[in-house]
Amino acid sequence: MKLTVWTYEGPPHVGAMRVVTGMKDMHYVLHAPQGDTYADLLFTMIERRNHRPPVTYTTFQARDLGEDTAHLFKSACKEAYDRFQPAAMVVGASCTAELIRDDPGGLAEAMDLSIPVIPLELPSYQRKENFGADETFFQIVRALAKPMDKDARPSCNLIGPTALGFRHRDDITELTGLLEDMGVTVNVTAPMGASPADIQTLGRAHFNVLMYPETGESACRWMERELNLPFTKTVPIGVGATRDFIAEVAELTGLKPHLDEARLRQPWYSASVDSTYLTGKRVFIFGDGTHVAAAARIARDEIGFEVAGIGCFNREQARPIRALAKEYGVEALISDDYLEVEAKIEALQPELILGTQMERHIGKRLGIPCAVISAPVHVQDFPARYSPQMGVEGANVIFDTWVHPLVMGLEEHLLHMFREDFEFNDAAGPSHHHGSAHATPEVVASADVIWLDPAERELRKVPFFVRGKARRNTEAFAAERGIGEISVETLYEAKAHYAR
Amino acid sequence: MNAPSSGCRDLPVLKESGQREVFCGLTSIIWLHRKMQDAFFLVVGSRTCAHLLQSAAGVMIFAEPRFGTAILEETDLAGMADANEELDREVDRLLSRRPDIRRLFLVGSCPSEVIKLDLEKAAERLRSRYAPKVNVLNFSGSGIETTFTEGEDACLASMVQELPKTDARQLMLVGALPGVVEDQMLELVAGLGIERVSVLPSTDADTELAVGPNTSFALTQPFLGETYGALKRRHARHIAAPFPFGELGTTAWLHAIAADFGIDAEVVERVTEAPCARARQAVAKASDVLDGKSVFFMPDSQLEIPLARFLTQECGMRPIEVGAPFIHRDVVGPDMETLAENGAPVFSEGQDVDRQLDRVRAARPDLTVCGLGLANPLEAEGLATKWAIELVFTPIHFYEQAGDLAGLFSRPLRRHAALSVAAE
Question: What pTM did the predictor assign?
């Protein structure tokens, strides 16, 4: 038993829903009690889907438990089949139904429906949402995909995008264009947008593009073995990774590498002088393993941040993230405990968090700006505009997204110059944030270090967005040297000590 | 008006079973924890429960809220002794980290009910350990037993059992309301001249509540059927009345209370004259849009019947079907009768969501009141909707909120009229 306040991932059947809801002509009969239908609103509200997810819930109640819940499952299955006439169905149990052991797979098979019925075994008390999505898609592919003659021209499948995925919709568009530019057509994108009939033809492609290992890796591994489909290992998020990805595709297809960089602005924006202020800013990166690995590379190599710490919430990616952390000379935090992540951020005191919606809230509390790089998703992660993470446009979008929460270079200087001016007072905050004040908590001085009045006044002249850091640094500096009282001199000695 | 006449008992109700598109009772924790600021709600359940709470809360408001889920793991399911020890350990950890907690609710879930984890016994055990500083109670918010607002009902019923006995003549007002609304309510009741008035649930653990044979109680929420039963078992007397929504509902509710306390109707009229006029004026602004329009209620919070009464009687709407997850006739009888006289809708109880949606599509109502899972899909079919959950989170009771309440329903209609570029 483990006390959980907020969760990064839902239960595994929500992962299965993400796969099925992304697909066409597919239906999911879920043995579940009343209340589990809450999951529908994730899709209709967060993603603003205009259709209900194709899921039928058996909705058993306490009084059904003594009687025949299996019968309830069968009638729900039959009614769903008659009403929605799907081309294939997946059947399974949510956490409560798993306990009553009705065997939805066996029951559905005995019904002899005229379509493929794919049973799911998702251990709700051990695994989570990403596993559920990965396993569901793998089972669907294994049941439906068949070996086929290859396309005459180079082609690939895009594997991994699901409903409720972080920018999956736009990543598909970006990658499809990128591959077409190189002369590679997309055979099937799956699960998002694919029907059971499309799944059958996956084998026609020459290779798979594994977009999101979290949700597509098991299927890709199976297709590599059974359908002779190698898959790409680079996730093309960031300029360097996109170029590597193109090289990988060239190697797989024998085509000449080609990337149209006419629209690529990120490297120049990063090189231009206004970005100087980004140099060495300490960032903490947290999210799903794939997005964290990509973000770490961009942060260090493409924007010039200092990576102060990385971590992921999905244990499946613990090994690669630990290895990556070693390479960056930091310790990896592998945890889905929100409080642990918060403690880590509090200890590291980064200048920017690249995280999930959870870290955005942590950042709000601690007064640290945050840009969102990964699921779990929020309605804000489905912008109306085109906003991919992958490829050329993805790199541009990421630059804007990460820089936005920070005070801009020139603005930082203006704040210095006009800090006595009413519009630039401490409570005003950066102009592009609607003038709302940063909720920087003033750190209370520890009992053994006293701030002398002139030092305290001097500290107030430091702009608000670095004041907390100045205070902490000065106190640490004083503590290290056994200085009991902080004077103006101590403040500036500490400043010189910490100068980069 | 004081007791439901036999009329409502005879009204036909369409009873349905099948897939229900509703929340489970755990969802009540979202507003209960804000109402009871020294309480912590510890759900003993699965990752699904934690995910539901997080999703229903919509946004993560607090860094560390006063609710959480003790997630059962494979090891807990193997042996019962383990699960109890684990629970004690988690509670101990929680209470040592959160010294501000004075009331701890152990909340049962579907999995904890199915594996028959006895939370009542657990609460007893923990109560003896942490008394008197922390009171430990338990209730079930499981989906196999409770629908959405029934979580609050179960929570309040668990508190009624614990109340000390009193013989004092008093009025108890029952239901969790936002602070501003509760203050208005207390002022109105004080205006009637009733001296001893208490509110369940209380904001903090130190407020002394008691119940007994000289207690009369009025419900402020229609979903409190269990609590109603629990109070009757403690020999309190129920004041049957329409629910205090809109001008007429609020006035009728106050009249019923006044009658129970032997207060002249004239006193009620004097106290309510000014706010009545304000409410009437405010409702009139919104009812321009609502007048003559049809409305369809999908089952959600049990607020459906009283709210349909308000929309029909005070805003001129035409109710087509009024669905509720459960119809407790002793509680909503007065509203149900008025509604039947004014609009004669189909009353339905329970749900088979696909069949009900067929009826919605056939009737094409001007406004459909439904849950969040259905709203956007119906909008995409060109049907205006009102999210039902907002009716639970927003202050809507009594005179001063009557205009806001009507506005909640008129806004989607005004919006439909305002948007001239259609979505494809």
Answer: 0.90
